[in-house]
Amino acid sequence: MKRFENKICFITGAGSGIGKATALSFSREGGKVVLCDIDEKNALNTKDEVLAQGGEAMVIALDISNGAAVKKAIEQTVATYGRLDCAANIAGVAGPVSKRIHEYPEEFWHQQINVNLTGTWYCMKYQLGQMLKNGGGNIVNLSSAAGLIAQPENAPYAASKHGVVGLTRTAAKEYATDNIRVNAICPTAIETPMIMEGRRKLAHNEDARQAAINFQAMKRMGTPQEIADVILWLCSDRSSFITGIALAADGGAMA
Predict the structure, then answer these.
(1) How many CB atoms lie within 10 A of CB 219?
(2) 83, 130 in Cβ contact below 8 A?
(3) 202 pLDDT more than 90
C-alpha cells in the first residue's frame, strides 16, 4: 500500500520548485492533492502532471497572506474531500535586494513578514482547526537555514523564517496530545526559481552561484525532490515519534 493512499494533502506554493515536487510526490504515493498557489497557471500545470501520472488533484488560487482566502481554501478542501490529513506549507517570498537593516526598504520587510510568517500562521490556524475535527493530521512548514542562523543583508527573510520555526515548535507542543504533529524543514541552497532568479540571481551570477554551492559541505545545491522526500517522510507514519523539530536539509552546511 502506498504511504498516502486516499490521504488528503494540502500544498501551498504547489506551482513550482519544492511545492511542485512535494505535490507530485504525495500524488505518486496515493495522496489526493490540493494544489494552492498565487499563480493559478503554474498550479494548473502541476495538476496536469498529477493527472498524467494517474493522480487526483484540485487547484486553488491562493494568496496565503489573505486570512479569509486561506480559511476559504481549507473549507473548499473539506467540501470536496471531507477531511484534511497532511499539509505542506511551502509558499513563500524572498526580498529583491541585499541591504543592511538600517537601509532595508520597509515595503519589502512587510511583504516577507506578511507572506512567510503571517501567511504560514493563517495556514496553520485553519489547518489545525480542521485536523482537530479529523482526529489528527500532520503539518510540515518550510522554514530555511535562515531560520536557524543569521543571513546578513536579508533581515526580513531571516526574521520571518525564524518566526516559522517558533510557530512550528509552539504548535507541536500545543497539539501533541491531539494526534497532530507539526514539524519544519530548513533547507539551504535548493535549485528553485526563487533562488535562481531571485535576490542573488544565481542563474545569472556565477560567483554568487559558486558561493551558494560552497556553503554546503557536499559542494552542491540540493534539488526540490530531495526536500520533498523529507517533507513526505515527516508527514508519514515513519516519523511517528517526531514533532516540533526544525530539520536542517543542508548538505552538511550546519555541521
Answers:
(1) 11
(2) yes
(3) no
Secondary structure of the chain in HEC code, one letter for each residue? CCCCCCCEEEEECCCCHHHHHHHHHHHHCCCEEEEEECCHHHHHHHHHHHHHCCCEEEEEECCCCCHHHHHHHHHHHHHHHCCCCEEEECCCCCCCCCCCHHHCCHHHHHHHHHHHHHHHHHHHHHHHHHHHHHCCEEEEEECCHHHCCCCCCCHHHHHHHHHHHHHHHHHHHHCCCCCEEEEEEEECCECCHHHHHCCCCCCCCHHHHHHHHHHCCCCCCECHHHHHHHHHHHHCHHHCCCCCCEEEECCCCCC
Among 52, 48, 94, 68, smallest CA distance to 189 is for 94
Phi/psi at 46 (nearest 5 deg)?
A: -65, -40
| Cβ proximity of 44 and 14 under 8 Å | no
Average pLDDT score, the chain:
95
User: pTM for the complete prediction?
Assistant: 0.95
Which of 168, 163, 152 lies closest to 200, judged by CA? 152
* pLDDT-based confidence at residue 200 (cuts at 50, 70, 90): low
CB distance 207 to 201 below 8 Å: no
Q: Which domains does the chain have, with CATH numbers?
A: 8-187+224-248 (3.40.50.720), 196-221 (no CATH)
- Known catalytic residues are 157
